[in-house]
């Protein structure tokens, strides 16, 4: 069994090279990285150190923070100010509509109650920042939609949508478990 540092180096090196190989074949690099993760993981070759596997949620949170920071640094504040509430509407309306549609379909087809349907909607609704942020930054570097601030609106709307859906998911999980998330607090701190 390798050390955690060797495991991280193996993941990074093989992930990078497989991503480049898959990109040269015409597919997104993310597919190659996912395949390496599956191959190295416990389901196939089991080459990963157990400490790295237990720290996976931390790595996931750091990755999302880096992606969202990259999105934030790529925004043009003047273009967002010109658009007014476009980014706000792009962030809120699609996520809420998708949650509502998934909840209704889950209630009709699967027999879920409203809270369970909304929870399923909160799982399905968020778009992946790992896909949207690099794509929009690439389009922005190519100059597509820069004059009208389209990529900035989509970047900020995507980040806002993810935050909204995460908040709603947390609230729904609290109510699903028999109370609101703040029920464990003493009355003076509510």
Task: Describe the 3D structure.
It is a single chain. 74% of the residues lie in helices and 0% in strands. The protein is mainly alpha-helical. It folds into 2 domains: 1-54, no CATH class; 57-181, no CATH class. Helix 6 (86-110) packs across helix 9. The protein is globular. The mean pLDDT is 83.
CA(first)-CA(last) distance: 49 Å
Structural class determined from secondary elements: mainly alpha
**Helix segment count?**
9
What's the mean pLDDT score?
A: 83
Helix fraction, binned, reads: over 70%
Number of beta-strand segments: 0
Low-confidence stretches: none
> How many domains would you count in the coordinates?
2
Q: What is the H/E order? A: HHHHHHHHH
Instruction: Indicate the overall shape.
Output: globular
Features:
190 residues, mainly alpha, 2 domains, 9 helices, 74% helix, globular
Short account of what is shown:
With 190 residues, the protein is an all-alpha fold. It is built from 9 helices and no strands. It has 2 domains: 1-54, no CATH class; 57-181, no CATH class.
List the helices and strands and how they pair.
Elements: H1 4-24, H2 29-40, H3 50-54, H4 56-73, H5 77-83, H6 86-110, H7 114-124, H8 129-142, H9 150-176
Helix pairs in contact: 1-2, 4-8, 6-7, 6-9, 7-9, 8-9
């Amino acid at each position: 069994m390798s050390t955690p540092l060797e495991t991280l180096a193996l993941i990074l090196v093989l992930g990078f090279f497989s991503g480049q190989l898959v990109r040269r074949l015409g597919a997104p690099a993310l597919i190659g990285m996912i395949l390496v993760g599956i191959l190295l993981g416990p389901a196939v070759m089991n080459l990963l150190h157990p400490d790295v596997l237990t720290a996976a949620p931390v790595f996931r949170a750091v990755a999302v923070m880096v992606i969202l920071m990259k999105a934030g640094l790529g925004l043009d504040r003047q273009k967002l100010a010109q658009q007014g509430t476009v980014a706000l509407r792009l962030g809120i309306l699609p996520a809420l509509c998708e949650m509502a549609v998934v909840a209704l379909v889950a209630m009709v087809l699967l027999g879920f109650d409203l809270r369970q349907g909304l929870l399923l909607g909160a799982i399905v609704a968020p778009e992946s920042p790992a896909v949207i942020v690099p794509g929009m930054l690439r389009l922005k570097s190519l100059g597509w939609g820069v004059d009208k601030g389209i990529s900035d609106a989509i970047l900020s709307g995507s980040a806002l949508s993810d935050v909204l859906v995460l908040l709603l998911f947390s609230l729904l999980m609290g109510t699903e478990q028999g109370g609101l998330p703040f029920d464990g607090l003493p009355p003076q701190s509510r």
